[in-house]
Design goal:
Elements (H helix, E strand, L loop, with lengths): L7 H30 L3 H27 L4 H11 L5 H8 L5
Helix pairs in contact: 1-2, 1-4, 2-3, 3-4
Length: 100
């Protein structure tokens, strides 16, 4: 695990996993609990955590894109779009980030 955090790509991959997981829990657990059963506790805790992870992912994607000279139209925008689609960050990790 320590070796992942030594590179900017490794940190981005970790953030992709955390952001993607938090999005899935929000979409498939927290929101249904809130709207069907009126349970808001998970949303009120996980919402801000997901927001922070989302922002960290976006900032790190831009930083890595600059560091690795990604062409925006070829790579950066795909990685950025992935964070708003459920399962998107896992797909991008497999198709783009893991190969770098």
């Amino acid at each position: 695990m320590k070796h992942i955090l030594k590179t900017s790509i490794g940190r981005l991959r970790l953030l992709a996993f955390l952001e993607g997981t938090s999005l899935l829990v929000l979409v498939f657990v927290s929101i249904p609990l809130k709207h069907i059963f009126g349970v808001t506790a998970l949303s009120s805790v996980l919402g801000p955590i997901h927001g922070i992870l989302f922002l960290l992912f976006v900032f790190n994607t831009i930083s890595v894109g600059v560091e690795y000279n990604w062409k925006f139209k070829q790579t950066t925008w795909k990685v950025l779009i992935a964070c708003i689609i459920p399962f998107g960050t896992f797909y991008i990790d497999r198709k783009i980030l893991r190969k770098i």
